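Q: I'm a student working through a structural biology exercise. My instructor gave each of us a protein and asked us to get a predicted structure, then write a short paragraph describing it. Mine is Transcriptional regulator. I'm not confident about reading structure output yet, so if you can add a plain explanation after the tokens, that would really help. Here is the sequence I was given:
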Amino acid sequence: MATITDVSRLANVSKATVSRVLSGTRGVREDSRQAVLRAADELQYKPNAAAQALAGKASEYVGVILSSADAGRISSYLPLIAKGLQKYSKHMLVHFAETREEQKALVNELGNGHCSAIILIGGKDADLQSDKLIHLDGVALDSPYSIGFNYSFAAESACRFLMSKGHRNIALIIDSNKDASSLKTVEGYKLALQNQALPFNRQLVVETNSNPEEAVMALLNSYTQFSAVVVMHDSHAAHAMRLFREFNLAVPQEVSIISIEDSELAGQLNPPLTCISFPSEQLVDESMRMLGELLNNRPTQVQEQEQRALSGRLISRESVSTHR
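A: Happy to help. First, here is the predicted structure for Transcriptional regulator. I'll explain a few features afterward.
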């Protein structure tokens, strides 16, 4: 079984850094945070010392489940969650689950007396339920303890912005046609086209299936004309920019790119990435409110799904230009 020493060696950081990352403490460089998250997932590391303490102090811990595939996108949540848990004198235990089955197994394990509550980030199974479970940025918006992003609105807003710049042939890169957030993204994309009486071209919608480079290559190899691309993740935009340069396509002069994420990476790209930015702090704050109601056995105020799907705002940088 992997130890914290194994994780620190693989990530090439100190054990103290590993501990700070997995507890959500601020003050860790982003590259170190990403290295620790990747190493912990690769080694299937579970914090044994904390797990042993759970036997007598179960109520002091809140389990946090996330996927390594989403780690880059949602690692910024962890310090916010850790800070929010201080209000309830709780500590965070981070676990990784890559599939619906792994998520379900962890929810059951942590829920059976180990943790006073569980926060599932980016959950893939809308039917996964537990009286201790809070869905954060997942698919279960029909659950009373759930809060997420309005991907449909984000995609529609991104397309409308591109259309205002004269773009009509807009490509879309999604995660998977089996992923709920991707399906919502396609829904918003189609709505934007429909509102402008533009036809839907299936060849302009490509899936990454965990391989964004392959998705961009599929788009390029389709020989389908496009002047702009909407991506779900900033990292996908980074891959697209690099490949476009290799194919002598200048961004944004020849191809514009907009993301519906807005992580720290967005401002570091060349050119800086235009995004539909989501309010991560608001998302975590709302999940902490739900946590308080759950811990105090108070029924949460039931809201319409649309009210529990937060809308983003446009952050215009330099990756979109007017199409001529």
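A: Here are two points you could use in your paragraph. The longest strand covers residues 61-66. The chain has a mean pLDDT of 86. It's a good idea to check both against the output above yourself.
Q: Great, thank you!
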